[in-house]
Amino acid sequence: MGFKCGIVGLPNVGKSTLFNALTQTAAAQAANYPFCTIEPNVGDVAVPDARLDTLASIGKSQVIIPTRITFVDIAGIVRGASKGEGLGNQFLANIREVDAIVHVVRCFEDGDITHVEGKVDPLADIETIETELMLADLDSLEKRVVSLEKKARSGDKDSKEQLALISKALVLLQEGKPARLTQRTAEEERSFQMLQLLTSKPVLYVCNVEEASADKGNAFSARVFARAAEEGARACVVSAKIESEIAVMPADEQADFLEAVGLPEPGLNRVIREGYALLGLITYFTVGPKEARAWTVSKGTKAPAAAGVIHTDFEKGFIRAETIAYADYTALNGEAGARDGGKLRLEGKEYVVADGDVLHFRFAN
Hints:
The chain has 365 residues and is an alpha/beta fold. 42% of the residues lie in helices and 19% in strands. It has helices at residues 15-23, 50-59, 89-96, 122-153, 157-174, 189-194, 219-231, 240-247, 251-260, 267-279, 303-310, 312-316, 326-331, 335-340, and strands at residues 4-8, 41-46, 63-65, 68-73, 100-106, 203-208, 234-238, 281-287, 291-298, 318-324, 345-347, 358-363. It has a six-stranded mixed sheet, with helices on both faces. α7 (219-231) links the parallel β6 (203-208) and β7 (234-238). α1 (15-23) packs parallel to α8 and α4 (122-153) packs antiparallel against α5 (157-174). The longest helix is centred in the middle third of the chain and has 32 residues, at 122-153. The radius of gyration is 23 Å and the shape is flat.
């Protein structure tokens, strides 16, 4: 299980430059004019995790297989997109297919790069995008209400429940608030997700700053972080320009470059970490002589479902999970040491997988 993030934002904020850096390709044309992205570019990237390299070294694994994340570079949205302005609704439709929104916000001044609104104001940019997504959601829900009301009057239970959920979302949208703030029960969550509302997606704001602010951010990004905190979203700072330079460097030169520009790690790592936290994802590992591999599951996943990520047969025939915490695996130099040290546990069907667990599943054929 990975996850798919849609990169959105106004034109010329650095979306395609960031996408190119993230995917380490030149697949997206990064040009200084609106709508240079005509079709959504899609790229899978490996999730960097130093723990996996350590485990592979201890386990003497021949192959290392990281988990992956998908990024979709979606064309720049402009004011009026919900009514067909710019490239309009075809791009709003692309957003419905992603798990989370990576909202790139311009947080730098540069007279050579045109801003579609004529000024650099990250909060105004956020409002523009959010408004267009809310208007699209309003239109979508209002079109469904009429038919649902007819079915509800005839006594259809499912229609009544869906109508009640839609009504709660409509109230928020009409007040200028995103649908993700809709109060719902655990039982309603599946129905809510099936509405495919654009503003129901969790949001990660990526503040694209100038090179000098790539580590700590600047006054523009500070305003974005404050807004993210208010609405329960997340934010991180990157310099898309620096990331694009790192992406084309040989691996053995990247560490020296990062040190020279005063960065502890590439911005990609920040984006992925924040994305994981936003969606409540964790990583577990399988380690053997053939391969060391990372797997992604949602926080709270029980052992059988985690096994099912590898193969459905593992979940159906689940017996137990031989479990070693990452700290114990590394401290005791692998599975044999953990077993001898009493740190290998046998966990059953109710075990909730923890981030960093090294697991070996036993199952019946």
